[in-house]
Design a protein that fits this description.
By secondary structure, the protein is α+β, with helices and mostly antiparallel strands. The chain has 9 helices and 16 strands. It has a 6-stranded antiparallel beta sheet, covered by helices on one side. Helix 6 crosses helix 7. The radius of gyration is 20 Å and the shape is elongated.
Length: 343
């Protein structure tokens, strides 16, 4: 019996380039040996998730998520809780495309991404579970993890990666640490922190240096707790991130591997949880790593990555280098002890 594939695509992702490439994508997957059909997501809540579940229950061998990270998350949620889980393909067409970046899948060419699937190489990837939801890239809590809630989707489409940098810079002056209680393998943290991140891959918000040693299939999250409390400290840590991932040894950062995490707020303070870039509920929340849970097509010839700038555009690299140089030039007259930038 011939294998079957279902492409679940978001017709409004990115600059809506998917629609013009859909015929070519269908042809590539057909020629790879799959009887292939496509489904365009709708405005109905969980449209992509529900279609992925339906396809899996009908016995499809392959489900392809074509769209941004949100679409990929929805499709993964549609199959992660099932006993029969089809293989997952990814065709990126969003803003940052973190998951595609981590898998070395072309991010600006949907047809080239389809050819990665047709090549047939897969990785059995870890999946995160947060309560009853699943995530494939990152979860977190704290002010900076709320960044994606405040960036309008239209702004993301127009300006992409730079939208996040601009919004992050805007949020820094009002950043305040919050009390957290975090329990992880072999230890715990209770105190003030600006945020915690729980990563499954090395690509977070377009940055590959935040979690430079992430493994895709070892059953472990990388937990990053940032204890920095003001603009000066955050700017310095960001410069260390961009300068080769040197932040992981900084005393203001906890950086460990763990298979689970329990995150609790302290003194009834609200702590929103970010799951793959979207609001995922409020703490308390328990996170579990489901080892090698979904088999996903990847550009395995390029894994592991050989450079922290691999896959980045020239404009992204230039912007980061300019930022690092600017922070290095700052002195005591630029930033006072309270983290306020002077004129």
């Amino acid at each position: 019996m011939r294998k079957r594939a279902r492409i679940i695509y978001n017709p409004t992702s990115g600059r809506e380039a998917l629609k013009s490439d859909l015929v070519s994508i269908l042809d590539i997957i057909e020629n790879a040996g799959y009887e292939t059909s496509a489904y365009a997501t709708t405005a109905k809540k969980h449209s992509a998730r529900d279609e992925a579940t339906r396809a899996a229950q009908l016995g499809f061998d392959l489900v392809i998520a074509a769209g941004g990270d949100g679409t990929i998350n929805e499709v993964a949620n549609g199959i992660a809780g099932l006993k029969h889980r089809p293989k997952l393909g990814v065709i990126p067409a969003g803003t940052t495309n973190d998951y595609a970046r981590a898998l070395k899948i072309p991010r600006d060419d949907p047809v080239a991404a389809a050819k990665v699937i047709a090549k047939g190489n897969t990785v059995k990837m870890d999946v995160g579970q947060a309560g009853e939801k699943y995530f494939i890239n990152i979860a977190g809590g704290g002010l900076l993890t709320e960044l994606t809630y405040d960036v309008p989707s239209q702004f993301k489409s127009l300006f992409g990666y730079l939208a996040y940098l601009a919004k992050g810079a805007e949020m820094l002056p009002r950043m305040k640490p919050i009390e957290m209680n975090l329990e992880y393998d072999g230890g715990s943290f209770k105190g003030k922190a600006s945020m915690f991140l729980l990563a499954l891959t090395n690509s977070v918000g377009g940055f590959e240096q935040i979690v430079p040693d992430a493994s895709l299939d070892d059953g472990k999250f990388t937990l990053l707790v940032v204890k920095a409390s003001n603009i000066a400290e955050m700017l310095h840590l960001m410069a260390l991130v961009l300068n080769g991932g040197k932040h992981i040894n900084d005393k203001r950062v906890i950086y460990i591997k763990t298979s689970k995490l329990v995150a609790k707020p302290v003194n009834n303070n609200k702590m929103m949880i970010n799951i793959d870039g979207e609001y995922g509920g409020d703490a308390p929340m328990t996170f579990k790593n489901l080892k090698q849970h979904i088999e996903i097509f990847a550009n395995t010839d390029a894994l592991p990555e050989t450079s922290i700038t691999s896959g980045r555009t020239a404009a992204e690299i230039a912007a980061e280098e300019k930022f690092v140089k600017g922070v290095e030039k700052m002195n005591g007259e630029d930033i006072d002890g309270n983290g306020i930038i002077g004129k």
